[in-house]
Amino acid sequence: MKYRYTKFIGDELDDLDLEDLVAKLSDLLLSSGFGSPYEMDDAERTMQALHDAILDALFGGGVLPEETLERLLGDPADADQADARSRLEELIQQIIDRMTEEGYITTPPDLGAERERRQGRAGDGPDTAQLTKFEVTDKALDFLGYRALRDLLGSLGKSSYGRHDTREQATGVETTGAPKPYEFGDTLNLDAASTLLNAVQREARKARERTQHEHVASSTSISTEHPAPSTQHPARSTQQAAPRRINVTHEDLMVVQGEYQSSCATVLMLDCSHSMILYGEDRFTPAKRVALALAQLIKTQYPGDALKVVLFHDSAEEIPLAELGRVRVGPYYTNTREGLRLARRILDRQRKDMRQIIMITDGKPSALTQPDGRIYKNAFGLDPFIVAETCAEVAACRKGGIMINTFMLARDYDLVSFVRRVAEISKGKAYFTTPYTLGQYVLMDYMDKKTKTIH
Questions:
Q1: Could you identify which of 149, 269, 307, 403 might form a hypothetical disulfide with 359, taking C-beta atoms 3.0 to 4.6 angstroms apart as the criterion?
Q2: What angle do CA 289, 293, 296 make, to 5 degrees?
């Protein structure tokens, strides 16, 4: 019996980092309608779109080593390129199957193709497999939020953050600094060792002063007369001495200082009007990526905080955080007041130290919900009626102790003036940024809250 040995070259997928590939497909997995701004459907989430995105990642994203690609495709000078193309298509299909097995995407069953196959009419029509839609799973969205958070924190130059550590020194929270003398108004969180040490030192100081005073007095009496001999035995004096007590007074008290860690309730308001994907720039996908990173940050570093998401367009609605990555823009106007009103109702139910609204938008308020439920719309300029009603709602948020931080993705003069007015009324902040720096501003603002020092 003869044996033939061949060189083991392994599987092409052995060199593939699936998590790196999923991260490079984030623009597709978090698509917001930018690829088809005039078609409000799921045309971007077909298997053909996924196939093309994986192909671009293989050749332009560096997810596979060049040696693997050369081994897969062979020499371009060879005449047989059909075989190389076939191997490439097979590899892409294997990647899609692996993404499905790992739980990053799901594909609904293609009942139409199966029906045609059973009826013997398969291949007569278009390739329905390429038109099949895929859905992004919660695992993929959670992973994309983690990668976005890691990338954003890396760009900030910091690797980890604790809870909302501020520069406030407050007693009775978490010991981080040296103890301080107790003052009226401090939490009576005593540092026992420092308090007793102060009492002992105070009594020892008084004992020394008393001894010095008695020594001076005895020296004066010795100079005038002889001292009477002591009739008490030293040992008997020691046995009859009372046990020493430490008398603690108000001036001895020392309290623990600590970093004040607050809890925060946040409503993230996302503008999903049609302008977020117009003018040649996708602004909604970066906003969703920032929201996922913020959710990941709260879940891992600030477990006591609360985060809710509100979409505002012609009206406003609260959505579950798990559905954020699947949201798309629509042919909507911008009803900022209704979004603020819904966010205020949500925050009124929260019992947190801080309550805030993070509003991400690129356009002016152009819609308003009237008392009878009808939507008043005006997209031409800043409508004075809409602006006045929106500012009134901002003032109501301020009265309720809610701060509004606005992240504006546009630089029009009128819009800048409006956003600054909102920040002035709500005592919040206004950031004029771009989709590329939005995440850094949002995370920095969230993690750097208060600066007042409490003594």
A1: 269
A2: 140
